[in-house]
Please model this.
Amino acid sequence: MTKIGRGGDRVRDEHSTRRDVLAALTAVGAVGVLPGPAAAEPDSERPQAGDLFVSQAGADSESVAPLKPADIPLGGPPVIAWPYDAAGHVVRKGSRLNKVLLLRLDPATLDDATRERAADGIVAYSAICPHAGCEVSVWVADQKIFECSCHYSHYNPRDAAAVLDGPTPRALAALPLKIVDGNLAVAKPFTGRVGIAPA
Ligand code: FES
Model:
């Protein structure tokens, strides 16, 4: 009992001492507030609901023109685009993880989950391959599938960009769409992680 009592007293004393030291340091301003994690710049933030899109080709032009459904050709090829915060006049091209593929397909050919995320048959997927982070840059027109030519993974855009073959560990993240005032817009954030899948 004595032992415990002595130990308890010692612990209380140590706590009291630490409290006193902290109080003293705070009083003289020696204890600062630790900085929190740095916020992402608006052009690097992931696409937000309500963002519009601009084509990669048009993103550097002075007058940004939001993409409309008619700008996306039926049956492909996909249009490479960046999300665009129209209110803040910010094209979110500060992170390559924001690059997306916009593709228009016959809605009747889409599986249920993909059709639900589509607007006018247009679907959006991350352009970054989860295998090693290359850009998914090839459209295989006769099969209407995406190819990452770094290590030849293939994705089926009609089935949530599911993996058809190749070393990639998972599907491309989808970006649900809607149409706002005649423009293509983001309905919800990416359905999953974008970029390289952790081992
Ligand atoms: S980076 Fe795309 S298949 Fe390897």
